[in-house]
Amino acid sequence: MKNDESLTAPSGKLAGNSVGIAHIVFFVVAAAAPLTAVVGATPPAFAFGNGAGVPGAFVLAGLLYLIFSVGFTAMSRHISGAGAFYTYIANGIGKPAGVAGAFIALLTYSSVQVAVYGLIGVFTNGAMAALGLDLPWWVWSFAFLAITHLAGQRNITFSGAILGVCMLAEIVILLLLDIGIVLHGGGPEGMSASAFMPSTVFTPGLGVSLVFVVGSFIGFEATAIFGEEAHRPEITIPRATYISVLLIAVFYAFSTWAIVQFYGPSKIQETANASLNTFYFDAATAVLGPWAAHTMNVLLITSLFACILSFHNTLNRYFFALGREGLAFEVLGKVHEIHGSPYVAGILQSGIAAVVLAVFVIAGQDPLAVVFSYMSALAVLGILAVQAMVSIAIIMFFRKDNKGYGPWRTTIAPILALIGLAGAIVLVISNLGLLAGTSNIVVDSFPVIVVLIGLIGAGFALSIKKASPERYAALGRVFAD
């Protein structure tokens, strides 16, 4: 049995100086899964939300996260480590809150990863069945789980290279569609900027649209979670954060604006409601030809794989940080001798995903209606809760010492971000049934589940404080300034 001192010391350090801005941006944007988000998430936003105002909703969400980034990047210069949001919250609000945030973050990323495993199984099943290989969806899900695990065991730059290729491919096909629409002069109603006008954006359906739009930014904290492995993190992390948010917001706003032009602002809501599953594929076929729709189908699978791989690496580093600090099995804090990756954490994370997937399969649950819809709804709610906690942590952190920053970065921007995130949480809770595809006791309990997980995390931290004060004192400070 090891003494408390050994539990407080780091049992490993990730390979430093190994990733740059491009790799981190790839992780963030790949987690956002551009093709999946645009083709899968925006049709419901068009159909049930503010219709032609969806592009403006992306602009609003982008502004919210840019404002969030002001304080987030300021704090990133003083707080670093593989725990990311956990470390921020622990150093800002306190250790119990930090562990609560870590538990909610684990719930969030585990949920979204399982959701995407269900979705990729369905899409791959459809694609392969057309080629004569008709296997159950879960066979493909477990196959991608194995591939993801092997990739995650390698050095982080290996995953970064894969994500870069996948991300560029899906962005190219969407840009071809967008540019094609523009070159054709739009659709029956021509082209206009009405999608960004306040009268179009701020309609009663805006709240519903934001529920889907905000979910497109999940994976945001990947900029900070790789700070320990980044080259010159004090410069790399802030730049990667702003680039990622701007890239996601601008690209999504442009792509949704283009599709509004194709169908026409007055017809977009009606058309989306009638063709949720073929909304973009129909446009791609009409503008570029049948090959584009087939290509989109294939790239949807690679987009989902990139999303899974990104979240797999994020989860690995959370488990790694918790193991290194004694919040979980210390062996999770070990790094691979060759690749410098948190390989033991990766084994645990893949095992958990496999067990959860197996439970859904044994229970005979539908991969779309339950696995994907339920888990993604829970993930959106969880990540907003953690981001709101980070905003509070930023304010409290700089109250102790403003580190030479002005009130805009240390107080005003974080408060504005907190208000925006709190509003988003209210919107998500109000529209959980729409986001999950149904309303029942399970879906309605998601807010309670998130709170309970947070309370369990805080209670666990307090139990450590009582049993091992030395270990408790080290929480969240392994790489703190």
Automatic annotation (TrEMBL):
The keyword Transmembrane applies. It is found in: Membrane. It holds the Pfam family AA_permease. Gene3D superfamilies: Amino acid/polyamine transporter I. Keywords: Membrane, Transmembrane, Transmembrane helix. Its main location: membrane. The keyword Membrane applies. InterPro entries: AA-permease/SLC12A_dom, APC_superfamily. It is a multi-pass membrane protein. The chain crosses the membrane at residues 21-42, 54-76, 97-123, 161-186, 206-227, 239-260, 291-311, 343-363, 375-398, 410-434, 446-464. Residues 23-461 form the Amino acid permease/ SLC12A domain. This is Amino acid transporter.
